[in-house]
Design brief:
By secondary structure, the protein is of the alpha/beta class. It folds into three domains: about 100 residues, Glycogen Phosphorylase B (Rossmann fold, 3-Layer(aba) Sandwich); about 180 residues, Rossmann fold, CATH 3.40.50; about 30 residues. Helix content is about 50%, strand content about 10%. The two termini are about 35 Å apart.
Length: about 325
């Protein structure tokens, strides 16, 4: 038994918690196993993404079995999107009565006070100046780790394919380059040499930078939910995202943005051009996006649902204990 599992088991056995919640691949494996061994009454797996979908061959088989084991050890599973709930059920990871989504999904909801659309015009002017853009530039934005499984190969290839015909277009990449080597070398070379690509390191001014964008793109291969989509929508930015579980729940196709097939740079380029060449459509999508984010994912309301969910889980467990006691 790995030392981490043993240590967790001893802590959980001693403290006798009513609920243990866990998420992310490594932590889930250790915590789910230790909680199961310690007989914790409510073992809550916050399924914020499914890792094995980006793998192939033997690695995919192994990671799928790990996912299946973690689900089996858990008493309740709460993916952060309906798409991942339905995917998990189809994959046989757990039965329908074991999984549920809180409210409309997401892991934490959107902080409307931070992503304050009333400040958009002010931030747009200030931060466009910071990145060397003016009112005439058309900015495609991305926020996240710049890596292959976030769809960055497709995004960069898509932009490269038409930017030469759109000299005022800019690609704004905000994020770390820890896995930058997973980007094709010819695309990295273009990013480094093109004056149409802007890179900004990770920072805490994401709402301000999103205000600069005309279109936000997340062509990811997998996401638990795709919270950055909701953040962009909260700032009134039209979006383009891949049609995979998670992001598909964070967008309303042809209402707040456009969905495209995953790993399809050609379709992505077409969708980006549709929005960049049609300011009226971008504006309409942006207005609908801001309302969608506010009405469906506002953080304070989301947290009320989270609290109610925890109270329900505890009440259900207490009922089972009391009911079992009457039949002893």
């Amino acid at each position: 038994m790995p030392k981490a599992i043993l240590k967790l088991y001893l802590i959980l056995k001693r403290e006798r918690f009513d609920i243990v919640q866990y998420s992310t691949t490594n932590a889930v494996f250790y915590a789910a196993t230790a909680s199961w061994l310690a007989c914790i009454p409510v073992r809550l797996y916050a399924q914020w993404g499914i890792r094995y979908v980006v793998f192939s061959g033997l690695v995919k088989i192994i990671f799928k079995q790990i996912e299946r084991w973690c689900c089996r050890c858990s008493t309740v599973i709460e993916p952060d999107s309906m798409g991942n709930l339905e995917f998990s059920i189809r994959e046989g990871l757990y039965p329908r009565d074991k999984g549920r989504v809180i409210w409309n999904g997401s892991a934490c909801g959107i902080n409307i006070e931070r992503f304050d659309i009333s400040q958009k015009d002010i931030w747009r002017t200030e931060y466009r100046e910071k990145i060397g853009c003016d009112v005439h530039h058309l900015v495609v934005g991305f926020v996240g780790s710049i890596r292959a499984d976030k769809g960055c190969n497709e995004l960069i290839a898509a932009c490269r394919s038409f930017f030469s015909n759109m000299p005022m277009a800019r690609l704004l990449l905000i994020g770390d380059k820890v896995f930058y080597s997973t980007i094709d070398k010819d695309l990295r070379d273009w990013v480094e040499s093109s004056d149409q690509v802007i890179h900004v390191p990770p920072n805490d001014q994401i709402p301000q930078y999103m205000a600069c964008m005309d279109v936000f793109a997340l062509p990811s291969y997998r996401e638990g939910f795709g919270m950055v989509i909701i953040e962009a929508e909260a700032m009134g930015v039209s979006v383009v995202a891949s049609n995979v579980p998670g992001p598909a729940d964070a967008i309303r196709h042809e209402v707040t943005g456009l969905m495209v097939p995953v790993r399809d740079a050609v379709a992505l380029a077409e969708a980006l051009q549709v929005l960049l060449r049609d300011p009226a459509k971008r504006t309409a999508y942006g207005v609908a996006a801001a309302a969608f984010a506010r009405d469906s994912f506002e953080q304070k309301k989301f947290l009320q649902y989270v609290l109610a969910d925890k109270e329900q889980l505890i009440a259900e467990e207490e009922f089972q204990i009391n009911h079992a006691g009457k039949h002893v």
